[in-house]
Amino acid sequence: MSRSVYVYGVVPADDASAVSAAGVEGCTVRAVAAERLGALVSDLDTGSLSAAGAVRAHWRVLDAAAERTTVVPARFGTILEDDDAVRGELLNANADRLERLLATLTGRVQLKVEGRYDEDRLMREIVDGSPAIAALRRRVEGRSQAAAYYDRIRLGEAVAAAVAERRAADADRAQAILAPLAVNVRVEDARTPDSAFNLSFLVARERVDDFGASVGALRDELGGHVDVSYVGPLPPYSFAEAELSSAGGA
Amino acid sequence: MAVATRPSGGYIERPRPSGLADVLEIILDKGIVIDAYVRVSLIGIELITIDARIVVASVDTYLRFAEAVGRLNLQEADNSEGLPDLMESVTSGGAKSKTKGALEGVKEKVFGDDDDDEEQKPKARSRSRSGSSSSRSSSSRSRSGSSNGGKS
Question: Cα-flanking dihedrals φ and ψ of residue A78, to 5°?
Fold first, then answer.
């Protein structure tokens, strides 16, 4: 059982102190500092890590850290050999990039806006809106599943294309309303088949209220045709995308 | 959700605090990466990554859409207002809930019944779960690779 160090994220050295939330495997979360940067880490026995528990710990530690400082989240599962590796391979080797990332994230939070369709309502609108789909649907109707197999695939393909078109249009509307209030936007993967859009925004803390007003405006505009959920503030996971090198450079 | 009125007549929405289910994909996918080699492949993690994702274009998806459309008891010509409500109650046990059920079933299996009940979850239970999942993760691996490859 070799000991190693689990890394949650990077913070400014001034704020690099222990976090009270329990870490992976229930271990204490401590800070490792080097020059102007610090990393939040905990000791880890890699032989006995439970994935589900570790995901929860990762989430809670970063939430707690983001409440009091700017944190650049590390991707889940980032493990280094020891504190020297944290200082050398993570902090010192990538100091410039990490400091730039911290600067772009300071005073800003991630807000997630996700839209979902009511599937029956969406299907009805699509059939009503397309004579071709309505005709295909009639061809399939009343025939056995096996006999109509290829027609069903064609029907489903046509419906999938129509859904994709609707998604693109609704995602555009959401971005047009919300993006002006944000510093940055990320289009996230759809999480469920009924997803209309899944967007993450980086928003200055002092503009969160304005952003919320725009979320209200978006909800009004979509008029019940899309169910909008609004979640946050989150640590800026989606805006901390960088591939660092343990040898530095890049 | 909390809604406050504004002098202008609009309203400000307050974001809802996140549950693990809201951010699971983001936690698994986002954040800084230090070289590939330091990311240890933990037992069960690949399985979570796969199952949390939706395969968007596949024959299964098409058949599912065909079924969803087929379930609509359409009287397309005169689409009266009352009909959709009726339809919702009739079809609520159909493909939609099946799909959701499948997805939520996976999360339940991996994370326990409640996304926010982290403390009470007995360790032995989670370990046996990740143990059984590892046998499936090898077959899922290639899908994992290709879905990651599609991202930029």
Answer: -80, 120
**At residue A180, what are phi and psi to the nearest 5 degrees?**
-60, -20
- For the entire predicted model, the pTM comes to 0.72
- Over chain A (250 residues), what is each successive 10-residue block's mean pLDDT? 82 87 90 94 76 87 94 89 90 94 96 93 92 92 83 92 92 96 91 88 96 95 89 95 72
The amino acid present at A74, given as its one-letter code, is: A
**Option in A73, A78, A101 nearest B34 (CB):** A78
CATH number (3.30.70, 3.90.1200, 1.20.144, 1.20.1280) of A109-238 reads 3.30.70
Residues 107-166 of A with CB under 8 A from B: 111-112, 118-121, 123-124, 126-128, 133-134, 137, 140-141, 152-153, 155-157, 159-160, 163
Cβ–Cβ of A137/B70 closer than 8 Å? Answer: yes
Q: Residue ranges per domain, chain A? A: 3-104, 109-238
Helix or strand (DSSP H, E) at B61: helix B59-71
Tell me the ipTM for this assembly: 0.81
Rounded to whole angstroms, the maximal C-alpha distance in chain B is: 62
Distance from CA of A249 to the nearest CA of B (A): 12
**Domain range annotation of chain B:** 31-145
